[in-house]
Design a protein that fits this description.
14-stranded antiparallel barrel; 394 residues; globular; disordered N terminus; Beta-barrel porin 2; signal
Amino acid sequence: MKKYALSLSVAATVMSLTSSLTAEEVTLFDYTEPTSAYEDAYVSGRLNVNSGNQAQTSHDLNVDLNYDRVFSSPDRDITIGGDLQGSSKRGGNAGDSTQDNYIGTAKASANNYFQPGSKGAFWYGDTELGVKKGADDPRLKAGVGVGYGRVVNVTPMAQAIRLVEALREKNILTGNLTKAEHNQLANVIAKESEYRTKYGAVDYRQVWVADMEAILKTSGKTRGELGAAGILKAYDVLVNERISTRKHGWVAKAGLSSVIKDYDGDGGKPALDLSHEYHKPLNNRTQFSNEASASAILKDSDKSYNIKNTMSLNHEVSDRVDWLNSWALDFDHNDTSGRDTTTNAATSTYRYYISNKLAFDTSAALTKVDDEISGNGNDEIDKSLFMGVTYRLK
């Protein structure tokens, strides 16, 4: 009997170790992407108002609105995005006037793959609309070209892994899920918008979570029903917690475009466009991304060009805290004026999610502008520390 009991104990230990190793092997790279869509929309702001011991009340307001929507199918990836930044400032000295400013860009593009379902060659079409204060006209640009590669949204797998971890911590799951079972969960999570459309914005979550519960029961690793505790925990992870978008893969593009109308009212400028983006989750909680682009005007009377690169490293410190870091480089050569302008901006943000939609930000930023003009107020590195809020619209 003792030998039998010892054998059972050893077998249970081995099974537990094997199960733990299986859990460690499931990563974001194991996600088999279905047809999916995701949408991110944020509005961030910070406001500083000073009054007393000065001639007039001063203020400094900054608002930033971001939108990003991606739809992926075997045939094509469609991306719609935009960014709008606005500010209002007034000094405390008598006679200081209010200075308002805004600049925004809206973009849309479609990558059409020659071989559906592949991560290979495609042709693309895109368009861009820009507005800014003081411009004679909006800037409108459209282009076509070819590219190679694909970026995959792996956020549903990140949510599936987090859900399994939470249920295991509560002992609602008796064992770890396989990669295939994680994928089944992720595929249901990825179809949240479909459930919302079919069952309504209020009732869809009941069916959504029930379908995930069915997958967990089929795995044979639940004690019958999930029960109230399991369903509430699933709701908490999938609805109340915020998991930032995770992506992996790379894309390279080259094409020709036309500046149909520029800010100065001029138009008909052909341009050569190059771009590259690379995304990789370093682990289940850390995302690295780099996006670069270059555009050059192909006109004898105007050989202006612009080069941009944005690098980011975001880490999920806990279920409610993200640490966001970015470095942006912008080099612009204006052939008309003969002036080069280089802007470097590094930002580090500690973001605490008060709720799934509302977050409190503490940010430190360094900005250096080199515009070959002396004494215009930006010769030194601009250092800033500010606090604000971010509201998630979508």
